[in-house]
Amino acid sequence: MKLRHFFLLSVLLLSGQPSLFSQPLAFHRYVIEFKDKNGSPYSTDIPAAFLSQRAIDRRIRYHIPVTESDLPINPSYIGQVSDIGVKVLNRSKWLNSISIETEDSAMLAAVNDLPFVKTSFPVALRDGNPSSVQNIYEDVFPSKLASEELAEYGKAGNQIEMLHGQQLHTLGYKGESIILAVLDVGFSNAPNIQVFDSLFLQGRVLGKWNFVAGNDSVYNNWGHGSSVLSTIAANIPGTMIGTAPGISVYLFVTEDGFSEYPIEEHNWAAAAEWADSLGADMITSSLGYSVFDNAAFNHDYADMDGNTTMIARAADYAAAKGMIVCSSAGNEGNKEWHYITSPGDADSIITVGAVDSLGLITGLSSKGPSSDGDVKPNVVAQGIRATVVEPFSGTIVTNTGTSLSNPVIAGLTACLWQAHPDKNNMEVIRAIEKSASLYYNPNDSMGYGIPNFEVADLLLSGTAPDNLALTGPLIYPNPFQDYVQMLYYTARKQEAGIELFNYYGERVQSFQTSLQTGYNYLNITALSNMANGLYFMKINFEDHSEIVKLLKVP
């Protein structure tokens, strides 16, 4: 349902029927939108009054101006609403709105009569029915296990190897300089789970807040967030290592595990902008909204345009402030609603679908595109039988869903950004997309496909030219001295033989390699002892051969 339908619903409740004002409302939580921020005590000239220094530094680094959207809501507006007697729940400066709770129609009418109130609309019923919760943890591990050299990752090795993420770790990038806000339904038992020992002992949980309950209780309820967090921050060598084991985090609860209503989108917006103000670099969110417990609130596919839902607008605001937002695509692929869920439709974020351990798409993962035609999901990662921690026992198990493929991508994105802090959020996202297996032929199930973070690193470093071609091997540097590197894009898996010949036709080096779908990176070393002069590299594919001239120089 579009927001205009909410506006109409609130108007019907409040206009022309004074007798309703003495009756309990059918809804008890509302979003109140304000017309402006006039009379605010805050100024864009003094951002330190409402932004942390780290948030200000991000804006300076990436040439992002401080604008009116950064200004907190006029506290006088909030005070006058509160004085009427309603309960103020959360606030969003980006959406210039607050959420309130009241069952008194007269109080709601009084709020709407305030001269600075633009509109109001309901976001939750007075009495909700608890949503069903399914336990889908398994004790069966992925059918394709990681190679021996990835043994320290434990059973999580495959989901990292699939993305060539271990290369970033080998280079020393494990997310140490990145702050990530994790938005979820709860992080049950997290301080007591062994894989998080270093996270807590090193003080890398920087803060926590429950935007549903209005307190700092995030560990005593739902465990979904603990499993999500484990794919990123787990750090027990030989048992499980996540994709960014050195990262620092904020833990925010925005999802109400007992019901599904649009107020959770407003909670999300409040948490996202708080993360921004605190200086977080990234947000990962394995939440999505389309169908609610009351069908009157449901979104339709037209709403998935990145500009309609509260949560998608907030996600794009976060991106505009220089943050990288990673969102799960949703698990609706086999359902009547088979599209991505919001905020996955936001156009400036990374939306992640799920494949199995072999890199094959399954019906579960929500489909794109967004209703305005953007490629969605952007990329995919292992989300079928992904390795996670079971929060209540702390054991390593598997679980299924885009809830898990998304944080796998988020963690490696953090490592990639750590390696290239001079690049802005969109440059990082574009490199990830360009490195992916289907970059030249994206589809509605996998988007741009499975990213290769080793190639994304090369693209951002400038080691590999940005003008990669669809066909033909890219060999560089050329002329060379000690080594050459090759990037080659293939639309399918295949074997290839590499042969190096000198000017006289003598073969001086040869080896075999397996090429995966997408860009393949090869580093051919130990060439320093070869004589200077002209060489020919012959690349033998299954159906053809290609020859490239190389020049060895002093």
Overall geometry = elongated
Q: What is the count of β-strands?
A: 22
Radius of gyration equals: 26 Å
In terms of quaternary structure, what is this? single chain
Give start-end ranges of low-pLDDT stretches. Answer: 1-22, 128-146
Portion in strands: 15-25%
- The end-to-end span amounts to 68 Å
Structural class comes to alpha/beta
Estimated helix fraction: 10-25%
Biggest pleated sheet:
7 strands, parallel
Question: Count of helices?
Answer: 13
The chain-level mean pLDDT equals 89
Q: Strand arrangement, largest sheet?
A: 6-9-5-10-11-12-13
List keywords for this structure.
554 residues; alpha/beta; 23% helix
Overview of the molecule:
- Helix content is 23%, strand content 23%.
- With 554 residues, it is an alpha/beta fold.
- The strands form six sheets. Strands 6-9-5-10-11-12-13 form a seven-stranded parallel beta sheet, with helices on both faces. Strands 2-3-1-4 form a four-stranded antiparallel beta sheet, with helices on both faces.
- A hairpin with a 4-residue loop joins strand 18 (494-502) and strand 19 (507-515).
- Helix 8 runs parallel beside helix 11 and helix 9 packs parallel to helix 10.
- It is elongated, with a radius of gyration of 26 Å.
- Mean pLDDT is 89; it is low at 1-22 and 128-146.
